[in-house]
């Protein structure tokens, strides 16, 4: 069998560009994929004939600055540090979000829990960003074993204090972008309410690393929030930034700005369909979840 080495590219288009492409597709009867592929071929042909001249208006001195990449990496590292600080400070109140007194909200949580247990039943599971072990405890009886990982020791201390049999679960310090350091062999993975905190330009890195760590045949379950106006702090958009952010204030009065990206059902299909088998995407009023195998 010939291995397919085509690399999936995730491109997040500005709303204006996306609407223009959708109009073009509607007028021509072509699909969005066909329009984008044709546009890419046209770009490559122009580049081949004219070289970097076609980018003259974009390649100003600032963008040619060799320090630009370093500055971008510094910004990304700062954002990672902010998220880690936020969850370290939030450890003691982390699970309050699951106790919202709304019947529909609670019903969706039950449906997610049942779907999660079905997808991972009997498997040896690597849990990414397990936090205080809320979801670890829910799936423990259904799985063969779960290794919960998180970058913050504060949340892991709370997780370890839960009444989960040691034969069923363990908790380890672990970086979601460096899963090779986590010991064990896994045929399942869980990432609950972590995906929204991944900068969009790191989604491919995360999923590639996760799939490589698991191998073919593994089942994966990912769940996160649907955007609801007025819930969970103010949503912040920044100019020339594809990510969105939330302003959060904790009970100690500290304020934190964190990456918080929200996705439609169509966007989730765009992200996961090229890399998934038996893909299932469910979007509710408060949460979404994706389950698939690799």
From TrEMBL:
Gene3D superfamilies: Met repressor-like, Vaccinia Virus protein VP39. One of its GO terms (biological process) is regulation of DNA-templated transcription. Keywords: Methyltransferase, Transferase. One of its GO terms (molecular function) is methyltransferase activity. It holds the Pfam family Methyltransf_25. InterPro entries: Arc_rbn_hlx_hlx, Methyltransf_25, Ribbon_hlx_hlx, SAM-dependent_MTases_sf. PANTHER family: TRANS-ACONITATE 2-METHYLTRANSFERASE-RELATED. This is Methyltransferase domain-containing protein. It comes from Paenibacillus foliorum.
